[in-house]
Task: structure prediction
Amino acid sequence: MVSTIRQHVTRVSELQDYEVEANRFIKNHAETSSHSREDIKILWTYGSYSGCYSLWLGNDSARKVFTEEIGRLCPNEYNLHIWNRTVTSPKGVKSFDEFQEWDLIAGSPVTLKQFDFLKYGSEAETNIDSLVFVVHEK
Result:
């Protein structure tokens, strides 16, 4: 039991570190691009961690019945569904190729490479090996 608790504490700590690093990167990106943090539109995808991504992913399982509510909670953070290449946002579901309203894609470097999303912008590494951002070059 003690081993299980230690593993859980370690995992929670890793998630907290991930969230801190993601927020640091997003804040720095906002500042260098002369935007406020709230203006940055982020596509979170499989292999990434974000409270908003968790809500959008759960919404997929619930047949998208909570889209409006999640849209109010996460107005600029969306779900990039890598398998069918769609984006779920408060406006509904659109093909990724048609959805141009994004600044960053957040995800695992392995996953983003495997599904060929790194080509859509410049790859920006973080201090977390499992987190990379693709910066949309407009």
User: Anything to note?
Assistant: The helical segments are 2-32, 51-61, 67-73, 109-114. Residues 2-136 form one domain. The mean pLDDT is 93.
